[in-house]
Amino acid sequence: MQIIGADFVVLCDSAFSVIKKGGICFDTQRILEIDSYENLCAKYKGIQCTYYDSCAITPALANPHLHLEFSQNAGILKFGDFGEWLDSVLTQREVLMQGDLQNAMQQSLQECLKSGVGFIGAISSHGADLEVLANSPLRVMYFNEAIGSSIEALDFLYQNFLARLKDSKSKASARFIPAVAVHSPYSVHPKLLEKVLDVAKKENLPLSVHFLESYAEKEWLESSSGYFKGFYERFFHKEVQTFYSAKEFLQAFNGIENVYFTHCLEADGEILERIKAQKGKIISCPKSNRLLNHKYLDLQAVKKAQIPFCLGTDGKSSNDSLSLLDELRIALFAYADMPLEFLARELLLSVTRNVFVDSTLPLGELKVGNFSDFSVFKLLKVDTFLAQHLILYAKEAHRLYIQGVEVLESK
Ligand SMILES: [Zn+2]
After folding, report:
1. pLDDT at position 410, please?
2. Looking at 221-272, which runs of residues are DSSP E strands?
3. Residue 329 contacts by C-beta under 8 Å, 6 or more apart in sequence?
């Protein structure tokens, strides 16, 4: 049991409460008490007490969408247009997994930890990231991804998905949660989708899916035309039609709550209403969206639909870093039409509370009973906490606790 305190303890609750000179008493599992640092130290005499001056303590940040396996793709893929990017992924697919991938993934993990991230949602296409993630100090939701549009290959792809899921289950623990990802509506055959969703439902596994990322995808789902028509002809030598409309695809997830829908750049009001009705969440990756789709998520529309909004980095196939602090800074500048401090608070909640709201994981908010996962950020010496200060000035985390243990090298 120990106590940490700081000038500001930012609870990341729905009221965005901040305790000045606050303290947290915790053990290696859970938060036991939250009060002023002074009260806690007086109450629990003799236990280790650490005060972080000019700092804020927040819940450890959560990056719910990244692809660790694409950690060495810098400079290989083409940015600026979704279709040109996807073409470059297909033509370079042999190269993308070669080289010293383990080393590249370790470096990416360090970027996560240094930015105060204690939880990640890792989309895994091949299972090459399983060991490195299971052995990392991070809490991991490990999304085994299913992909496949060709009916002849479905059985093989489904078996491959099941084998990876089984491997990930052998690592399951309080810190490592096996889960399921569906790649996208344009790349997953309805028969594969049905089987994979059946598994997720029966085993109550968390779900993540890329959805309406690009105009090309929207056009394909609406009219089987545009970029993807040529894509299937060039890379798969066949003429196909879209498997679903956007609404039909969403329908397949009906009855499953807490699905993470990633991107949703092309989601209109009706689609957003459906995601809300299905109790889904939306993950936005602004830097990835800038690089591939020269566009940002309509945050006002997502707020209006009252859908929990989360922020992720995506992988290095469409980003230059996995630092969630970088992502927050970019987002703070991207939405110039929103009041600054209001936006900064929304963004801080998008990497804490919103990721876990309505889920069974006791994370994302500092409250008694939640896991002992905290980030400590050095701030300016000020009297009042401003979320904008954290986003603007904290270039990396000062300390990071996961399961009540410090995981960053001390500075
Ligand atoms: Zn992604």
Report:
1. 62
2. 260-263
3. 391, 392
How many Å apart are CA 136 and CA 335, to the nearest integer?
34
Quick count: other Cβ atoms within 10 Å of Cβ 11? Answer: 21
84 is catalytic: no
Please report which helix (H) or strand (E) contains residue 279, including its range.
none
Query: pLDDT tier at 75 (50, 70, 90 boundaries)?
Result: confident
Question: In which band, very low, low, confident or very high, does the pLDDT at 236 lie, cut at 50, 70 and 90?
Answer: confident
Predicted local confidence at residue 320, as pLDDT = 93
145 phi/psi in degrees, rounded to 5: -90, 135
pLDDT attached to residue 98: 80
What does the pLDDT read at residue 239?
82
Residue 155 contacts by C-beta under 8 Å, 6 or more apart in sequence? none
DSSP conformation letters of 87-116 = HHHHHTHHHHT-SSHHHHHHHHHHHHHHTT
Per-residue model confidence as pLDDT tens digits over 1-53: 999 999 999 999 999 999 999 999 999 999 999 999 999 999 999 999 999 99
Expressed in angstroms and rounded, the spacing between residue 184 Cα and the centre of ligand 1 is 10
**In this predicted model, what pLDDT tens digit does every residue of 79-122 receive, in sequence order?**
999 999 999 998 888 787 788 899 999 999 999 999 999 999 99
Helix axes 286-293, 82-91, angle to 10 degrees: 90
d(CA 260, CA 365): 19
Q: For 168-255, where are the E strands, in sequence order?
A: 176-182, 207-211
pLDDT of residue 97: 78
Structure token digits, residue 333: 């500048």
pTM for the whole thing? 0.96
Residues 404, 257, 288: CA angle, nearest 5 degrees: 70
Main-chain dihedrals φ then ψ at residue 219, nearest 5 degrees? -60, -40
Q: How many Å is the Cα radius of gyration of the chain?
A: 21
Question: 75 alpha carbon to ligand 1 midpoint, in Å?
Answer: 18
If one counts every other C-beta atom within 10 angstroms of the C-beta of residue 383, the result is 7
The widest CA-to-CA distance across the chain, in whole angstroms, is 73
Q: Which two tokens stand for residue 91?
A: 């033509």
Residues bordering ligand 1, an ion, CB closer than 5 Å: 314
CA of 34 to the centre of ligand 1 (A): 36
CA of 77 to the centre of ligand 1 (A): 14
SS (H, E, C) 319-334: CCCCCHHHHHHHHHHH
Q: How far apart are CA 326 and CA 315, in angstroms?
A: 14
